[in-house]
Specification:
It is built from two helices and eleven strands, in the order E-E-E-E-E-H-E-E-E-E-E-E-H. By secondary structure, the protein is mainly beta. The radius of gyration is 15 Å and the shape is globular.
Length: 145
Amino acid sequence: MEHVIFKLINENFAIRLDQIKEILVYDQIILTPLFDEEPWVKGVINLRGEVIPILDLRIKFNQENPTFDDNTVAIVVKTEEEKLIGMIVDKIEQIIPIKKSQVSQTYDLDIGIDRRFIKNLIKLNDTQMTVLLDIDKVLKIEEKA
């Protein structure tokens, strides 16, 4: 199964490609801000007639004052409840096929994010691993947007 590897706070994370509806260049979206929301809820966009909340995962994962550049993207994902939600990340690294043999269970890791959000670990090669996020758990908390 193919996975998208993306950069978030100088770390690589992964999500399954089949969970992604669209990848949008951040500086090309028209964002309507929301007030009285959590700081990581940046606002909503109109994507072909559908209103989609946009969340900044960098702030959600405790990065202070994240920067926006030409690589910053919003990944629009479909949750298990069929809702579309956009997640701002620093950049897309690559799209790669992952075999079941590359996926392993998590152990007591301290990588700076809530363990509930971690689904598995993925061995990319002999020296690199990345975290497979449980996007439904990451986004479920913030669906009040």
